[in-house]
Amino acid sequence: MAPRIPGGFRAAAVLVKPPLLAVTRRVWSGAEHLPTDRGFIAVSNHASYADPFTFAHFLYDHGFAPHFLAKASLFDIPVAGRALQGLDQVPVHRGSARARDAVDAAVTLLRRGDSIAVFPEGTLTRDPELWPMVARTGAARMALENDVPVIPVAQWGAHELLPPYSKKVNLFPRKTVTVMAGPPVDLEEFRGRDLDIQVLRSATDRIMATLTSMLEEIRGEKAPAKPWDSRREGGGR
Questions:
Q1: Which region is the signal sequence (predicted)?
Q2: Is pTM beyond 0.70 here?
Q3: CB atoms < 10 A from the CB of 159, how many?
Q4: Could you tell me if residue 157 is left (phi over 0), alpha (psi between -120 and 50 degrees) or otherwise beta?
Q5: Closest Cα partner for 49 from 166, 174, 219?
Q6: How far apart are the first and last CA of the chain?
Q7: pLDDT-based confidence at 4, cuts 50/70/90?
Q8: CATH number of the domain residue 134 falls in
Q9: Under a CB-based contact definition with an 8 Å cutoff, are residues 144 and 190 in contact?
């Protein structure tokens, strides 16, 4: 059985779910791949600021309380910050001495059997066609250090509700949002090895290649041969 969803999440769902149900049609599959006997890291592609809501909706409706790693600045917002803390969301202090705090908090959740929801790219994709780009290695490191599975969750359609980097929500007509969970990413060859940058990069690339392949299936299109790399292509839009 998955960990019981705390009352705070249920209260938040009362506010968040009705608007999502009103403006989206959901095509969901693969929930059987979400482990119910241990903690896991759910990873997803990131093309819209609406993605966390559809990602959380998918996890919640299949019995999992979604715990996100979120920018620390969000926790400073009155009311919203307290709500995030109350829901065991994890603040990320990037580039500071407290950066490790997020990992420690996430590991605590994983060890008690909860799920962590992560966008490995760390930000919205810069790829012009919204394919996944080269990702950060944090999710792979967390999975390998703590021997937990990585479940790929590809999604498509939230960008039509809220286009990338836009503040204008397109509510109608209702948007179809497809979310597909897959089997755990095969990271066995990387477990038990020294987690140097080469190992972490290879594991991360496998995670992202899995997500990209699933997204190809959803979109019925072929992704570029090489994922967008902000270091190579330039980071701006």
A1: none
A2: yes
A3: 22
A4: left
A5: 166
A6: 43
A7: low
A8: 3.40.1130.10
A9: yes
Q: DSSP label at 174?
A: P
24 domain-assigned: no
What is the CA angle 139-69-149, rounded to 5?
35
CA distances from 207 to 18, 34, 45, 55, 181 (A): 32, 16, 10, 17, 13
CA distances from residue 15 to 8, 19, 151, 184 in whole angstroms, order as listed: 11, 8, 27, 32
Give Cβ neighbours of residue 26 (< 8 Å, ≥ 6 apart): 57, 176, 177, 179
Short-list 69, 59, 72, CA closest to 12: 59
pLDDT tens for 208-237 read 999 999 999 999 999 999 999 987 776 555
DSSP-derived 3-state class of residue 204: helix
Quickly state the pLDDT bin for 2 (edges 50, 70, 90): low
Count of structural domains within the chain: 1
pLDDT digits (tens, 9 = 90+) for 33-52: 999 999 999 999 999 999 98
Name the token pair of 161.
């509700």
pLDDT value at 94 more than 70: no
Q: Measured between alpha carbons, how far is 225 from 92 in angstroms, rounded to an integer?
A: 32
Please give the Cα distance from 86 to 157 (Å, whole number): 29
Which structural domain range is residue 132 located in? 33-223
Residue 230 lies in a domain: no
